[in-house]
Amino acid sequence: MAIKLTSIDQFEQIITDNKYVFLLKHSETCPISANALDQFNKFLYERDMDGYYMIVQDDRELSDYIASKTGVKHETPQGFYFVEGEVIWHDSHDNVTVASLAKAEE
Q1: Domains defined for the chain, CATH in brackets
Q2: % of the chain with per-residue pLDDT over 70
Q3: Distance from CA of residue 13 to its chain's centroid?
Q4: CA atoms within 13 A of residue 95's CA, in its CB half-sphere
Q5: How far is it, in rounded angstroms, from Cα 21 to Cα 37?
């Protein structure tokens, strides 16, 4: 299930408390982002696992913080895979798919 992030504190808590974290930065106005969100939800459903998403229009401060903390230039949609708080995979736009998310886990 995709759980909505709404604060920097929540983001920090999640990447501190969980060894593995999938995150999607989502734009509500972009059709490519809508497809990425569908792919993200399908990926999570197939694995019966939780992941996290944030809506860029609702929380630009959080989006900017993630870009700054990870050193990964902001794009939307943008998927991340964190292991022990470090980004080990990220991609954007049409490259956020069930297959690419699964490959990140390998």
Answers
A1: 2-105 (3.40.30.10)
A2: 100
A3: 15
A4: 11
A5: 16
